[in-house]
């Protein structure tokens, strides 16, 4: 049941990304171009996503298990640190250069555009690098 729920959640998420234009790099770059032809529509999509997620996160904060019985694991750390800020900057720069972030990249991967393939390969390399650095950090 958990895998089926995860599949349909991912499917709904991917369809939402496509319908909202988040999988269109030109639209994303238009949103990020504050000094040029700024397109604020993705800001509305993000605001709607925050509004939709607010109640489930509130509910999750008061419960130990999900509706399917899995343990709820919310982040415990609340303070900003160099790792969080650096990771956010790296994510933002990548998003600004490519106009793609991880969710939409997976949603449009099957289009076969070389830019998306390069982005996903770079994303996977970054994930592997992070895992390696975390492993080295844990051994100290």
End-to-end Cα distance: 40 Å
Poorly predicted runs are none
Domain module tally: 1
Averaging pLDDT over every residue, what do you get?
88
> SSE order, as H and E?
HHHHHH
Number of strands: 0
| Biggest sheet details | none
Q: What structural category arises from helix and sheet content?
A: mainly alpha
Provide the helix percentage.
55-70%
* Strand content range: under 5%
What is the global morphology? globular
Structural key phrases:
140 residues; mainly alpha
Briefly summarize what is shown.
The chain is an all-alpha fold and 140 residues long.
Descriptive report:
This protein has six helices and no strands. With 140 residues, it is an all-alpha fold. It has one domain. Helix 2 packs across helix 4 (82-98). The radius of gyration is 17 Å and the shape is globular. The protein starts with a helix and ends with a helix.
Topology:
Blueprint: H1 2-20, H2 25-32, H3 41-61, H4 82-98, H5 102-107, H6 114-139
Helix pairs in contact: 2-4
């Amino acid at each position: 049941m958990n895998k089926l729920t995860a599949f349909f959640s991912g499917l709904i998420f991917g369809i939402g990304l496509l319908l909202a234009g988040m999988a269109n790099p030109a639209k994303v770059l238009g949103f990020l171009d504050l000094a040029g032809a700024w397109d604020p529509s993705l800001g509305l999509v993000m605001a709607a996503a925050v509004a939709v997620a607010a109640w489930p996160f509130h509910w999750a904060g008061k419960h130990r298990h999900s509706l399917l019985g899995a343990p709820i694991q919310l982040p415990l750390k609340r303070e900003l640190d160099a790792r969080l800020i650096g990771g956010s900057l790296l994510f933002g720069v990548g998003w600004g250069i490519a106009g793609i972030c991880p969710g939409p990249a997976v949603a449009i991967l099957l289009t076969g555009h070389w830019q998306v393939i390069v982005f996903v390969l770079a994303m996977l390399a970054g994930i592997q690098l992070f895992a390696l650095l975390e492993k080295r950090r844990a051994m100290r």
